[in-house]
Amino acid sequence: MLTSKQREFIKEARRRWNIKIGATRSGKTWLDFNYRIPAKTRELSGLDGLYVIMGVTQQTVERNVLRPMRDVYGEDLVGMIQTGRNTVKLFGETYFVLGAEKISSLAKVQGMSIKYCYGDEMVRWNQEVFAMVQSRLDKTYSCFDGTGNPEGPNHWLKKFLDSGADVFHQRYTIDDNNYLDPVFVANLKREYAGTVYYDRYILGLWAMAEGRIYKVFGPQNKIPHVSWYEQDEYGNWKHPLRKNVMYVQIGVDFGGTKSSHAFNATAVTRNFKELITVKEKRITKEITPEELDRAFIDFVKEVMDEYKVIGIRADSAEQVLIRGLKMALIKHQLPVSIDNATKGVINDRIRFYISMMNRMKYFIVDSCKETIEAYETAVWDSDSQEDERLDDGTTNIDNLDAQEYSTEPWHKTMIDLSRR
User: What angle do CA 27, 92, 82 make, to 5 degrees?
Assistant: First the structure.
């Protein structure tokens, strides 16, 4: 069954550029891997030119497009990417599968004559790669179909859509997909409520990220220190979240010219339901590596005195300092490993915490004053054309980074669980 927006696309999308922009899970890509890509492949079969699928990376194309299409049509019609050749067999035709995130991808497109290009997550593409694709659609019958989630109103793709080019453009809201589970939709709306992400990922609008980032963070996310440490007459913890803590992980961010060293310890409750920042430390003065090691060991011991610590994740940009911390842990016979933080995309980390705050899945003990202030003062960079968290030394980004490192292995699991 198709939604009204999907039926409109099938009927009206006859332009050189056919682009669907809008809310997440609104049925944009579903229509393409179920109908549009197979149809265009058959329609243009035998004509001169190449077939291309482009996404942020080959991996995202596989995840977002090829794998679900393979689930529908089977491996005989939807093959696997031949990584050495950057190709895949679709419905008997050869498609080139290319990433468009970096300018280095230009070389892969140069010289191509493209009859059909499908673009996944095109809002995240490098603009120069998109410009090269424009020049490669050089047949009278060349066609481009693309999808994406909107970002800021000054984005280059928004300007292209408004340029008067031969474009069929649709905007999707999450409510355009009336086949979604209403519980899932309600949960997603609650996660993004009061943020720029509601405008973008629910309403499908090109919206500016401005002002405070964590507007949803407030008293409801703070746990009084006294309450967190309160025990009954038998020595059992009284706070319901404290009772359910499984273990703690520590995040470490190293200071630079305008920044501080920061340690954050975060507890996770049973079944990965909630996160609680339980301890923090911020070192604003300039210190030697030896002094950093001592401060770190003192912090780890303090946390281990109260909680089971399963790991430490540190800023991977400072390998010399990490080696020093590892040696300090061995010297003091503290049985916990320290690994490089993954340091995923900052805006993905921001969205995760906003989602957890909105769903009352993230809390912080109110003695962690540095991190609380960091959440309350973090703002978007008003001078940037991109969505960038201001990081010029005027606000405390260091504890936010340490906080995010401390929980990064759990982000996907917790998002998936919260939407069930």
Answer: 85
Q: How far apart are CA 279 and CA 252, in angstroms?
A: 12
Q: Is 11 helix (H, G, I), strand (E, B) or coil?
A: helix
Are the C-beta atoms of 147 and 136 separated by less than 8 Å?
Answer: no
Q: Where are the alpha helices (DSSP H) in 13-103?
A: 28-31, 37-43, 58-61, 67-73
3-class secondary structure, 74: coil
Instruction: Single out the residue of 376, 406, 370, 377 nearest to residue 392, CA to CA.
Output: 377
Please list, in sequence order, all residues whose beta carbon lies within 8 angstroms of the beta carbon of residue 28, skipping any fewer than 6 positions away: 20, 22, 147, 172
Domains and CATH numbers, the chain: 4-180 (3.40.50.300), 219-418 (3.30.420.280)
Exposed, middle or buried by CB within 10 Å (0-12, 13-18, 19+), for 140?
Answer: exposed
Q: What would the pLDDT profile of 3-34 be if each residue is shown by its tens digit?
A: 999 999 999 999 999 999 999 999 999 999 99
The DSSP element (H or E) to which 276 belongs, if any, is: strand 275-283
Whether residue 84 is predicted with pLDDT greater than 90 in this model: the reply is no
**Helices 411-418, 346-358: inter-axial angle, 10-degree rounding:** 40
Strand partners, 88: 95
- Both structure tokens of 35: 């109908």
With b meaning 16 or more CB within 10 Å and e meaning fewer, what string describes 353-386?
A: bbbbbbbebbbbbbbbebbbebbeebebeeeeee
Please give the Cα distance from 301 to 309 (Å, whole number): 10
State both tokens at 300: 């780890």
